[in-house]
């Protein structure tokens, strides 16, 4: 293998595939990045066997030459060293050549690095997915949907299925649901498809970690991302990147009954003011008792948020609301869950719907039903 | 105690004194910040008993009202909670009032926080220094002098005296020296004084940690900092801050004989090019053998920097020099020490003077003798 390449593109490609490389893998070759050069360009691959990322650098893009492949071939290079070196090379042009025993020479200006390479034949093959059904979704929307749900997955391995986000496709609609059994985040969107039968259904659970890494690779652009779902793998494909993730096995709990249809108290309030008041109220509560704050309606348009940590002190916050409809209310909940939910809702005003102090409550944005955040209260009153 | 104050000033003052507060102190009251209000303003104090910082907020500055003291008094508040709360208060105006049992109410807008305070009488008194001799030095110069020396102190407690920086004053000159016995940094500057006798000498050792914290408090401004040195304390005074540090006990080694007066090889080279070449050469060497790189003259104006880690690979870097004078040379040294030294020298071009492969070498900037960096080589050739 022998090629010349623009450093910027190589750096970007290496950074992308590095997101899948773990230094704590039990399979030694997976600490490396696989490079393959052929007449069309250079392909980089990184994998921790749960997530695999392939980044393709074409020989030219929009008429601009990016790479020149002098000899096709492949090699695996230690990701840790290779990624550091590429970033620090002195010139815009990089030359990479594999010699005997996979010894790889990387040249740029007056800098010459020789890295011991590994046999690319040892590197595991990426999953080959049958592309019967392909969905499309704009990259920026996908990125938002991930951000608005993935924070609510469980971090505990007691119920492994809850460490993933449940993705359901039916009737051209994608529904993403995450819950750690104390709170739930739900986000819906329309998806387009290719060759999708009328009655097509998909119901899979994608590891939260995979979605978090995928989200880092996505730009805030409307460019379409292709999604291929199979029984045990999901593939996301952008212009130059293939992102594979294994799926979690098992049945995701039915969450539909959790979401109340009616409410007894509805509060309309400015998101930022509520968020900041809860943030302050929780300052003294963070070390003790699970970071719980008390929330109560004061009169027609005022709420009080408070916390009390006898050893440290107490905080009382009043927040003016747009409107309070329905019954008076006193309730307690995790300040962290509430702040997570408020940050996920991209809206200046939000609506909180309570059905009593012991029942889960909903946080939504005005009349938009594509996003719902649900939190279970804590018994303190 | 009861006062109103502009939040910005309170936040800044708290941030300043927080640099002295440690959560790992054995004296519980030192986890707090002491507040004292009187007719002139509000004074904040933080201390870990090695470093003490006092920040003064006047009731007015340049005709602008900053604070209004309604009742003089004092209290000690938990630094961790107080500092977080002040930062997050909603309005520009903050009101603070101490009630019975030092319970302290902090109000801002519709936010009210009550913190359990501690008895200020329990708080240790700051050292009272006799100001016989006071030196002055511009704040920005002091900040630079610290940055250019403190990195070279020892991090090991085997010889505690080397964890400090040796400050010597004689003949209106301040000399700062730091060494961990493998390298040495020296920086000199003129200082002005008040009531300084002709034959005045000072020779103290200031803990590196104290200087690092002091440096964070100093602005890049020419405003003068007063320095008072006593037998076991040093005080730095800026417009609104008093910074006390204890001194290290013991005799600092005489380093003057370490610095060679002659040289056999002098190399003039661009700082950034050398720094980047060494950075790359050291990439593969970091995990093994103390991060050592080899350095050799190639011909009249070229040097080669290389490293070899048999398991990973090797790097060879060539750097074009301005000039090489004297004998040919092959030497090995710690890449980290060299990079630290080069970063400390604020100069685009530097001169390295060697007196053989086994002797310490000097790195300087042109003909400026106020700063010297010295490194001991490592035997590998």
UniProtKB/TrEMBL annotation, chains A, B:
Domain of life of the source: Bacteria
Q: Which InterPro entries match?
A: DNA_clamp_sf (IPR046938), DNA_polIII_beta (IPR001001), DNA_polIII_beta_C (IPR022635), DNA_polIII_beta_cen (IPR022637), DNA_polIII_beta_N (IPR022634)
UniProt lists the family membership as follows:
Belongs to the beta sliding clamp family.
The entry's function note states: Confers DNA tethering and processivity to DNA polymerases and other proteins. Acts as a clamp, forming a ring around DNA (a reaction catalyzed by the clamp-loading complex) which diffuses in an ATP-independent manner freely and bidirectionally along dsDNA. Initially characterized for its ability to contact the catalytic subunit of DNA polymerase III (Pol III), a complex, multichain enzyme responsible for most of the replicative synthesis in bacteria; Pol III exhibits 3'-5' exonuclease proofreading activity.
Please give the organism: Ectobacillus ponti
Which CDD domains does the entry mention? beta_clamp
Give start and end of each DNA polymerase III beta sliding clamp central domain. 137-254
Q: What is the protein name given in its UniProt record?
A: Beta sliding clamp
Record's GO cellular component terms: cytoplasm; DNA polymerase III complex
Sorted keywords for this record are: Cytoplasm, DNA replication, DNA-binding, DNA-directed DNA polymerase, Nucleotidyltransferase, Transferase
């Amino acid at each position: 293998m022998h090629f010349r390449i623009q450093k910027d593109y190589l750096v970007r490609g290496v950074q992308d595939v590095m997101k899948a490389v773990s230094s704590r893998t039990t399979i030694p070759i997976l600490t490396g990045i696989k490079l393959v050069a052929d007449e069309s360009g250079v392909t980089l691959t990184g994998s921790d066997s749960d997530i695999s990322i392939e980044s393709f650098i074409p020989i030219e893009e929009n008429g601009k030459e990016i790479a020149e492949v002098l000899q096709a071939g492949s090699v695996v290079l230690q990701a840790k060293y290779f990624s550091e070196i590429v970033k620090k090379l002195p010139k815009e042009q990089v030359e990479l050549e594999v010699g005997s025993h996979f010894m790889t020479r990387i040249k740029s200006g007056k800098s010459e690095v020789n890295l011991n390479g590994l046999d690319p034949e040892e590197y595991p093959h990426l999953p080959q997915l049958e592309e019967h059904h392909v969905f499309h979704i704009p990259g920026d929307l996908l990125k938002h949907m991930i951000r608005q749900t993935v924070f609510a997955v469980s971090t505990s391995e007691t119920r492994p299925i809850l460490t993933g986000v449940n993705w359901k496709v039916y009737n051209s609609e994608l529904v993403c649901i995450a819950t750690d059994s104390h709170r739930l985040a739900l986000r819906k969107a329309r998806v387009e498809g290719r060759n999708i039968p009328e009655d097509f259904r998909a119901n899979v659970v994608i590891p939260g970690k995979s979605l978090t890494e995928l989200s880092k690779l996505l730009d805030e652009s409307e460019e379409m991302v292709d999604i291929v779902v199979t029984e045990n793998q999901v593939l996301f494909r952008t212009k130059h990147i293939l992102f594979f993730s294994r799926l979690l096995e098992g049945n995701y709990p039915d969450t539909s009954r959790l979401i109340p249809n009616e409410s007894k108290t509805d509060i309309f309030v400015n998101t930022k003011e509520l968020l900041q008041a809860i943030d302050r109220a929780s300052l003294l509560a963070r070390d003790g008792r699970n970071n719980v704050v008390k929330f109560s309606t004061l009169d027609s348009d005022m709420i009080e948020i408070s916390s009390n940590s006898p050893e440290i002190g107490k905080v009382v916050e009043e927040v003016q609301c747009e409107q309070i409809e329905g019954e008076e209310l006193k309730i307690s909940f995790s300040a962290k869950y509430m702040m997570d939910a408020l940050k996920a809702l991209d809206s200046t005003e939000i609506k909180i719907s309570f059905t009593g102090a012991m029942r889960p409550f909903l946080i939504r944005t005005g009349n938009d039903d594509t996003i719902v955040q649900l939190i279970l209260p804590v018994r303190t009153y």
